[in-house]
Design goal:
alpha+beta
């Protein structure tokens, strides 16, 4: 990310760190860590799919998702372009996450735009609501 990171509170910094760790786990294809970043149940509202309630870990189907983006697009990693903590408190947060999804040649093939709702349950941050959209890369 190009801009210097400035946070208004300790909770904003904590939330931003959590989201960055999620992206690192996603890029490492660490399914267990990616799934651990979510609370269950959580809601998912994604481009071209109806609102879904994800009740448990098995419903996330991360292995299949990785195969889809690798086989169809040559996915290598997601690169954060913008991370903004829109609101945070001691136990709730809203985040805007912008990324480029890049292929094995390092070329972006789509953007990823996430509006993420987080909550802290039993001392652990996790996604309680996710909304992902995939505009074309520029």
């Amino acid at each position: 990310m190009a801009n210097a990171e400035k946070y208004q509170s300790a909770s904003e910094a904590e939330v931003a760190k959590f989201v960055k760790q999620y992206v690192v786990a996603f890029n490492a294809e660490d399914v267990a860590k990616v799934v651990d970043c979510h609370h269950f149940p959580h809601s998912s509202l994604n481009q071209d799919t109806p609102l879904t309630i994800v009740n448990d870990r098995d419903e996330m189907q991360m292995e299949q998702f990785y195969q889809l983006i690798k086989n169809n697009f040559g996915w290598k990693e997601n690169q954060i372009t913008k991370l903004s903590v829109l609101h945070s408190s001691d136990d709730k947060a809203s985040v805007y996450l912008g990324m480029n999804r890049v292929d094995t040649d390092g070329a972006p093939f789509t953007k990823v735009v996430g509006i993420l709702g987080l909550s802290k349950v039993s001392g652990k941050w996790g996604f309680s609501q996710v909304s992902w959209h995939f505009p074309p890369a520029e």
